[in-house]
From TrEMBL:
Entry GO MF terms: ATP binding; ATP hydrolysis activity
One of the GO biological process terms: iron ion transport
Lipid bilayer topology: Peripheral membrane protein
Family matches, as CDD domains: ABC_Iron-Siderophores_B12_Hemin
Superkingdom of the source species: Bacteria
Protein name: FhuC
UniProt-listed Gene3D superfamilies: P-loop containing nucleotide triphosphate hydrolases (3.40.50.300)
Pfam family, one: ABC_tran
């Protein structure tokens, strides 16, 4: 059964249509990354799926029911959303921020229960923020703050998590920290994840499926191996790239430049061979595979 689905979906603002006639099925346990150039409708789609933006046409289903016909509290019990930008009062501590995630489950006349306290404590432990639970959120680094917001979303106990560019403004180490956390939530708790990403290689490594938007329409939908190819990168992003496979068989792309300039320069992509380490018994230690991988990189650099 689909936890989220869209039929003939049209989204936009006023008379401006951003996405049109989109059909989508997201199953329980999926990890779906949304890719596309700026202005393609990625964040707009996430707003529609989260009920923050009413459709201009079509319908969105959350667990089989029209999401627009469900109350905000009921929706919040089923899915959590982390937008691109979020702001909390400066004097709020990390624990107080995480407590907000329990609001959809509480009665207005009482405070947190013992169950709420246990869920909050567990969410902080899972995201590694328990050690600074009493610190104001304004004192946190970028990576710490993103994990604190993630803890709030986990405390909501959602079956589905929607993330809008969760690694924006983070250095590479903190980006990987967040992506590993998202992967663990899906793997260990079965949480369905839908996220907007700009890093195509992150999408390839951490997604089960990838959806590509271009010019307000669905361009491609499938596994990373099916979607990430030179044709897509050329037509959607306008870049010329080599597509390799890392020792785990995950596609990795390396840009060679903007496509029109690359073609004018007479580059020869055919020189690159497509390496796969699927036959390695222990991929992470496959010397042959790693040598082949390094050779492909050397060939690209020397071209």
């Amino acid at each position: 059964m689909s936890v989220l689905a869209a039929e003939r979906l049209q989204l936009g603002f006023g008379s401006r249509v951003v996405l049109d006639n989109l059909h989508l099925q997201i199953s329980q346990g999926d990890v779906l990354s949304i890719l596309g150039p700026n202005g393609s409708g990625k964040s707009t789609l996430l707003k529609g799926l989260s009920r923050l933006l009413p459709p201009l046409g079509g319908i969105i289903y959350l667990n089989g029911r029209d999401i627009q016909q469900q109350s905000s509290r009921l929706v919040a019990r089923q899915l959590a959303v982390l937008p691109q930008t979020h702001q909390a009062p400066g004097d709020v501590t990390v624990r107080e921020l995480v407590e907000y995630g329990r609001f959809p489950h509480q009665k207005w006349w009482r405070g947190p229960s013992r169950e709420d306290d246990a869920i909050i404590t567990l969410a902080m432990a899972q995201t590694g923020v328990a050690e600074f639970a009493d610190r104001p959120v304004l004192t946190l680094s970028g990576g710490e703050l993103q994990r604190a917001w993630m803890a709030m979303a986990i405390a909501q106990k959602p079956a589905t998590l929607l993330l809008d560019e969760p690694t924006t403004y983070l250095d590479i180490a903190h980006q990987l920290e967040i992506m590993e956390l998202v992967s663990a939530l899906n793997r260990e708790q079965g949480i369905t994840v839908v996220m907007v990403l700009h890093d195509i290689n992150h999408a390839a490594r951490y997604s089960k499926r990838i959806l590509v938007l271009n010019r307000g329409a669905l361009f491609a939908l499938g596994t990373p191996a099916e979607v990430i190819n030179r044709e897509m990168l050329d037509e959607v992003f306008g870049v010329d790239a080599a597509i390799l496979s890392d020792p785990d068989g995950v596609p990795v792309f390396i840009t060679r430049g903007l496509y029109p300039k690359a073609k004018a320069g007479g580059l020869r992509p055919s020189k690159l061979r497509h390496f796969s380490a699927n036959n390695c018994i222990k991929r992470d230690r496959c010397r042959k595979g790693l040598i082949g991988w390094a050779s492909d990189l050397s060939a690209l650099a020397a071209d």
